[in-house]
Each structure stands twice: as C-alpha cells, then as structure tokens.
Amino acid sequence: MTTTEKAISQMEAWAADDSHGYDQQYRWGERGDYDCSAAVIQAWELAGVPVKSSGATYTGNMRGVFLRCGFEDVTAGIDLATGSGLQRGDVLLNISNHTAMYCGNGMEVEASINELGTVTGGQPGDQTGREFLVRPYRNYPWNCVLRYGGEGGTTSVRPRPSYEYSVQLGLLKEGMEDVQVRTVQQLLAAKGYEPGEADGIMGEATVGAVRAFQENSALLADGEVGGDTWSKLLKG
C-alpha cells in the first residue's frame, strides 16, 4: 500500500467509524474527535509523512509544511469547479478556513461540524453520521490542492527558510475598524458563528459572535479579540 493510500484510507476509516466525530477543542483524537485540519495532518503523520512533527497545526500553516515534506502544489492543473484533474489522496485546502481529502470517483472525506452545528461542545463521536463523513466533491471554495510526491523512497523534509515573517495581531474592541476585524469576521463565519457582513467593523453583530465563540471556547466572554481569542480562532 502506498503512503498516499494509507493516508486516504485512514481518513475513510475514521469517517466510517461513528466513534470519531468533530471537535475543535479535543481535536487530535483525545476523545476520538478531530477537526478538519487535525484529521488530515494526523492521517498523513500516521501514514509516515512527518507533517505534524514538522509543525503543521492548522489550515493556515499546512501548505508550507506539506510542501517541505514532499508534497507538490498542483492547483494550476485542477478544475476546482468540477474536480477534474484530482487524484485519490489529494489534499484540498482553503488556507483560511477548511481542508479535506479527495477520495476519487467524485467524493471527498472531511471532518465537518459537530451535532450541534457548532465547533465545540458536542458529545464525543459522530452523533449524526455527518460530523466526519465522505461526501460528493464540491468546491468549498478550495484555493490550493496538494499532492504527495514522495512515493517509493524516504520522505525528506525540506529545510525551513532562513527568514521568518511575523504579524502583529492587535487587540480588537467594539467600534474599531481594521482589516484584522474582517479576518476575525471571516474566521467566525467559517466556524459557524454569525458576525454579520465582513466589513472590517467591530459592530454589535461581530462582538456578539465573538462572545459566543469565547463562551464555547472556555474563554472570558468580553467580546474583545485579544491573544487567547486570536489563538483559538486561528486553529483550523
């Protein structure tokens, strides 16, 4: 069995087993549950590709780590609208919000959402049959497709670049207007909350969505986006 087949078969096995559901708090299988990025990362790690060991933790850093671990970005050769060009085992990635794997025959597999329609607070396991599922392919929309190219040899991890970028994430409060607020709004919407229009303004709807997210994440529900809230939001 190839490395790619091991990874995609692991995802399909989790989806077929109702002891595995969706959760963003216990996301690495501690209680059987995964979120979208942890599932894909862990499946490849178990298949022998050290993406988790090399630092992949959520959708936002998956692409860089996967590329260093023997994957290729094949997005240019894929018709994302129809899935034409995809191969079994391809990693489907929306760098900001979501990830899944392509099963072949027009199907994909993913950890999706818990039985409450939220990202935390559900019971361990798949209560609905759709927390972790195989479903027909759809363009999420994806903005990156990664394909493992390390078959037939030892996977080599490419060296990290000698430079790093850092981004200063500010403390966001009600009434503020900033591009980072739009990022928060997009992240909240992707996680099933309702922050209103992604207009970059920290208005009443956005503050309410932040409070709801904080409550579900066991954070101080003050409606402000500081370090702890940013950290939780940026997990895949």
What does this structure look like?
With 236 residues, the chain is of the alpha+beta class. It is built from six helices and six strands. A six-stranded antiparallel β-sheet has the order 1-6-2-3-4-5, covered by helices on one side. Helix 1 (3-16) crosses helix 2 (36-46). The longest helix has 14 residues, at 3-16.
What is the strand and helix layout of this fold?
Layout lengths: L2 H14 L19 H11 L12 H10 L2 E3 L17 E4 L3 E7 L2 E5 L20 E5 L7 E5 L30 H12 L13 H13 L10 H7 L3
Antiparallel strand pairs: 1-6, 2-3, 2-6, 3-4, 4-5
Could you tell me the mean pLDDT? 90
In spatial order, strands of the major sheet run: 1-6-2-3-4-5
Uncertain residue ranges: 152-160
What Rg, in angstroms, do the CA atoms define?
18 Å
Shape: globular
Q: Whole-Å distance between the termini?
A: 29 Å
Helical proportion, percent range = 25-40%
Strand segment count:
6
Strand content: 5-15%
Considering the chains and any ligands shown, give keywords for the structure.
alpha+beta, 236 residues, 6 strands, 6-stranded antiparallel beta sheet
Quick gist of this model?
By secondary structure, the protein is α+β, with helices and mostly antiparallel strands.
